Amino acid sequence: PRLANQIAAGEVVERPASVIKELIENSLDAGATQLEVRIDQGGHKRILIRDNGSGIAKNELTLALSRHATSKVDHLDDIERIATLGFRGEALASISSVSRLTLTSKPADQTEAWLAYAEGRDMGVQIKPAAHPNGSSVEVADLFFNTPARRKFLRAEKTEFHHIEELIKRLAMARFDVGFTLIHNGKTIRNLPICKTDAQTSRRIGSICGTEFARKALYISGQSGDIQLSGWLLPPSSCAQQSPAQYTFINGRMIRDKVVTHAIRQAYAEFISDTGLSAYALYLTLPFDQVDVNVHPAKHEVRFIQSRLVHDFVVQAVQDALRQQLP
Ligand code: ADP
Ligand code: MG
């Protein structure tokens, strides 16, 4: 089974940022409101995610590291209308098959913390007592140490770090109710506290999308049937930045979907010639049975059941919002 894990790892574990994405999704699924992401050497050397989520009981630690062990799907049906972020039960098993992984956890109702350690694909899981506050930490050291071919594909520290920073920015734009800290080589790169007030929300938007965006973006909120679009859009007259903030979220997931992106650009095209300069953070919500998130294991892609309908709704909603801005 460990070999199967390594094969699965090829699909989910592409680079340090994809490991971090899976680990953070687990933390969010566990109800964490505070996340610390500590990485060394662009994640090549070490990734450590610490959360204040529900934790994992001692007798479930080994299971959490085995393939297809998920606490999130009770019936196969659930896959159809999945609401949690992770659901395949293979991220931890896959990651541990290509690294040295330590999972330390303490649920609030357990007096001591315990850790589970797994290394590569041939070793079992070791369980030991540990010290840890309520919540979990996952440490991934020496990613791809036993798969030299994959290791070779790791880019320079700077490139991997860039991917990680982009990921954290997207997650932070998806979850204003969660605080994030990003530490690279011992240095705090980002500290994004939980946003409870409009001022805190605006500060986070400013630190991720730029202060210009935070000041000038229009708030949009539209609905048609059970599809909803909300978020912020930069008015066409202010679109001038070289690498503008462009974020789209579907049912809370950070997804860069072709249908939605095309619709936004089409709406802007009425006002500006270079739609690449448009800037937005938009949140699309639709019933879970209207969107298939199960297209790719890493879940970067979705398929809409009625993509034409979604497309036209987004064009309309964005155009309406931009038009209001005209003199
Ligand atoms: P999945 O998320 O698809 O269920 P994973 O391999 O990512 O599969 O995780 C396996 C299981 O380990 C999860 O279902 C969950 O029960 C548990 N788990 C993993 N990470 C955490 C965490 N940070 N906090 C609490 N439980 C966790
Ligand atoms: Mg998961």
Summarize the structure.
GO terms for molecular function: ATP binding; ATP hydrolysis activity; ATP-dependent DNA damage sensor activity; endonuclease activity; mismatched DNA binding. One of its GO terms (biological process) is mismatch repair. The protein is an alpha+beta fold.
Q: What this model shows, in words?
A:
By secondary structure, the protein is α+β, with helices and mostly antiparallel strands. The chain has 2 domains: 2-192, 2-Layer Sandwich (Heat Shock Protein 90); 212-324, 2-Layer Sandwich (Ribosomal Protein S5, domain 2), CATH 3.30.230. The protein has 10 helices and 15 strands. It has an 8-stranded mixed beta sheet with strand order 5-4-3-6-2-1-7-8, with helices on one face. Strands 9-10-13-11-12 form a 5-stranded mixed beta sheet, with helices on both faces. A two-stranded antiparallel sheet has the order 14-15. A hairpin with a 5-residue loop joins β1 and β2 (46-51). It is elongated and about 65 Å long. Mean pLDDT is 88; it is low at 75-87. Belongs to the DNA mismatch repair MutL/HexB family.
Could you list some keywords that capture this structure?
eight-stranded mixed β-sheet; Ribosomal Protein S5, domain 2; binds adenosine-5'-diphosphate; 2 domains; 327 residues; Heat Shock Protein 90; elongated; binds magnesium ion
